[in-house]
Write a structure and sequence with these properties.
The protein is of the alpha+beta class. It is built from 15 helices and six strands.
Length: 328
């Protein structure tokens, strides 16, 4: 999709801009890509800017923007294959050897990460914030991609954003009965692929300490200390490669072998996809560091149970997420 240039942000009506972050979150859940979501919101803003003079307050501005954003997303999804995570594609884990990297797919094949600050409100009701965090978890976003686009929109609007069935029916130009039927089918599909999110506590002191230990062990490249942070059956995947690993021993073997090139990395703690995360800059040949990976961590009972390492092989991920491309 081609992004349309509309000039400086201050040319837009402030009423449009104040909805930009929540619209980005909505489009991210729909599309499974933070980059496609940014394009979709940009297109939404363009269409709204052009049509604002004829809007005349016939409906709430927020509802009108969601209608536009939904149509933009449905257009983007037309004819596209669903995005996925490596474990959705390869049924069995790979051996922790460099030859396992043979399977590489284009970026459009994968669910992509998003930083919390791009899509989540800075403040608000704690219960609503918790729901918002759950609804951008990688497993949930990947599960959403199993749904037909209109069912996806219905489920997000009804279950995540808490719209009434009548409001969704009006937005989609359909009936309440059709909305309720689509919601039931969407729930059944999500249950079948294990995509129903379970409530989690906000990131607490124990989790923050675990993240600090993760950063410390990785930067020192103390693999024994790193492995002790992992659950025995922990998993790891590394898009754009199909390879995924199971078990802390295999993850440790990988890091002592092909992954050893990451020794000497610099890490920055973040929050991404409603989870603790770190950005990693790997030593560059000739000196300095280069953007390498965004690690999104899933934590349960004081141990890391999954690591999603999104590799910046094409030197675009960090720039698109607004992360530094150079560190001292």
């Amino acid at each position: 999709m081609t992004t349309v240039a509309i000039g400086p942000a201050d040319q837009l009506d402030p009423r449009l801009l104040e909805h930009r972050r929540e619209l980005t979150g909505y489009c991210y859940r729909m599309l499974g890509s933070s980059f496609d979501a940014e394009d979709a919101v940009q297109e939404t803003m363009v269409r709204a800017w052009r049509g604002l003079g004829d809007f005349e307050g016939r409906s709430a501005l927020r509802s009108w923007l969601y209608r536009i954003a939904t149509n933009v997303c449905l257009d983007q999804l037309s004819g596209r294959q669903r995005r996925a995570l490596p474990m959705d594609i390869a049924g069995n884990p790979y051996p922790p050897v460099e030859a396992s990297l043979a399977g590489r797919r284009p970026g459009t094949a994968w669910v992509e990460p998003v930083l919390d600050r791009q899509v989540l409100p800075e403040d608000g009701d704690p219960a609503e914030q918790a729901v918002a965090k759950e609804s951008i978890r990688l497993a949930f976003v990947a599960a959403l991609q199993h749904l037909p686009p209109r069912q996806r929109a219905v489920l997000i609007l009804r279950e995540v954003l808490r719209w009434k069935a009548e409001e969704v029916a009006q937005l989609l130009d359909t009936t309440v009965a059709s909305v309720n039927s689509a919601l039931q089918r969407a729930r059944a599909t999500l249950a079948g692929v294990g995509g129903v999110p379970e409530p989690r506590k906000p990131l607490g002191a124990d989790e923050r300490e675990l993240l600090e230990r993760y950063v410390d062990a990785f930067e020192r490249y103390d693999i024994d200390a790193f492995v002790r942070l992992l659950h025995e059956d922990a998993t790891q995947h590394m898009p754009p490669f199909e390879m995924w690993l199971r078990g802390r021993e295999d993850i440790g073997t990988w890091m002592r072998g092909p992954g050893a090139k990451c020794a000497g990395s610099v890490l920055l703690p973040l929050e991404a996809n409603g989870s603790p995360a770190v950005a990693q800059w790997r030593p560059r040949e000739g000196g300095g560091h280069e953007p390498w990976a965004l690690h999104v961590l899933e934590v349960e009972d004081g141990r890391i149970v999954h690591i999603s390492s999104f590799l910046d092989l094409d030197a675009g991920l960090f720039a698109k997420l607004g992360l530094p491309t150079v560190v001292d």
